[in-house]
Amino acid sequence: MNTVKLVAVFVENKPGQVARSAKILADARINIRCITVASSGAYGVMKLLVSQPELACRTLKQEGFAATLMDVIAVEMADKPGALHAVADCLFKSNVNVDNTSGFVANNRAVLVVEVHDVARASDVLQEQGLHVLTQDETLAI
User: Three-state SS across the chain?
Assistant: First the structure.
């Protein structure tokens, strides 16, 4: 099963948190490939796709952040209208709920990062439909 590791960081919703965490990772020579930030009131969660997820998680924890690793799916999809619908509909028809998602386009490749409860099942469903579920290395190489 192909999975990708994201670093999830629980942070107080106040100025400087993104800058502080980004500096910590830069000082550790860890490249941030993608970031999402979602806040709700006084706290939020940053999710980072990074070059060295285990080191990033360890380093952020050492600096006082509440960080954890998450297994997610990175699925390559066409960079055209309807591509997101095709992936989402495939999961829906197999009764797989999408908990969170983000995406990016780089080097003419579109990637959807999908968080689900059952990563193995969702990965199988997508691959059975002919979609390419990326490995960690493939995702970071884009």
Answer: CCCEEEEEEEEECCCCHHHHHHHHHHHCCCCEEEEEEEEECCEEEEEEEECCHHHHHHHHHHCCCEEEEEEEEEEEECCCCCHHHHHHHHHHHCCCCCCEEEEEEECCEEEEEEECCCHHHHHHHHHHCCCEEECHHHHHHC
